[in-house]
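Escalated from tier 1: nicotinamide-adenine-dinucleotide holo job.
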Amino acid sequence: MNVLLIGCGGIGAIHAEKIVSGGMTLAAVADTDAARVTAIARKYGATAYTDAEKAMRHPGLDAVGIATPTTTHLKLVEAAARAGKNIFCEKPLAGSLAECEKIVKAADKMGVKLFVGHVVRYFQEFDTIRDQIKKGAIGKPGFIRTFRGGIIPSGWFRDYKLSGGVTLDCCIHDFDWIRYAFGDVTRVFSQHLQRTTPTPMDYSMTTLRLKSGMLAQVTGSWAHPSGFRVKVEVCGDAGMIQYDSGEAPINTNVRQTSAGAPTMIVPASPVPVSPYQLEWEDFAAWCTTGRKPRVTAQDAVEAVRIGLAALESAKSGKPVRLN
Ligand SMILES: NC(=O)c1ccc[n+]([C@@H]2O[C@H](COP(=O)([O-])OP(=O)(O)OC[C@H]3O[C@@H](n4cnc5c(N)ncnc54)[C@H](O)[C@@H]3O)[C@@H](O)[C@H]2O)c1
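Tier 2 regenerated the structure:
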């Protein structure tokens, strides 16, 4: 499968590596930043473009990967759909439900496949937790607590209008996984401490009520002095499952300043096949064999719906009902 990857920043560099290790061909790469795109193109022997729409005309492409800031997803998905290419788009699908709908419509209209990178579904730890609970390991689950975050990322992430802050950009992983593992969300209540001065930080806590009656508490932090950590705890009537990324692999966290630090820290995984590779393999299998992937475009829309409801709740101070 010949892939064009658009966006060679923090996550784009990881996607480039995983496209290749997953057995696909990175035929072309595009980024408005000439130095970045040239470096990735050289590393993988791909053709470099600074104009994404021009890159979509590269001969022999089967799919387009989009790893650019969230506000650019709509325009790039529409262009890729017009070009008739299957699409892998990073999460959050978009920053508004109206944009999400346009994205889904654009793909449907052109009959192309739209996959969204909700990678936590492919993290082996999360998959094992879901699996164990489905097998009854902790009886009937009642409560979920998740934590995700660390240092505040730099660049466009700090413009909360562009990124949606930690709640939409980061907690969306947990919103999606909770829906995937435990079903639909009916009510959302959230508070956040979101600021740009004197030092930028964003910390949020969101309570979800699920259709099943379960309660979930999702904490997101872009307020830590360094590092990145993920925690999950699920309590059932016969036991508990807990995971803390800080206790699994060996971790060294050094205090970092923004200068020279990556724009966003992507969690490391000690397992042999990276979840970022697994999601590309799932997308490729959908494109080549028709096997349905773990994530649907509608799942991605629902995750944005929960994230936006959390932001609305934080603004109004009131819970938001869904469904
Ligand atoms: N799944 C994950 O674990 C994960 C982690 C980090 C980021 N993300 C998501 O991936 C997306 C990108 O995030 P990032 O951390 O890589 O950001 P980044 O700022 O590090 O990189 C974005 C890149 O896109 C390029 N770009 C911007 N507009 C462009 C355009 N119109 N055409 C071509 N190139 C363009 C920029 O020059 C930059 O190199 C975001 O939606 C983010 O939320 C997902």
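Residues 6-12, 30-33, 36, 52, 67-70, 72, 90-91, 117, 119, 155-156, 169, 263-264, 266 surround nicotinamide-adenine-dinucleotide (CB under 6 Å).
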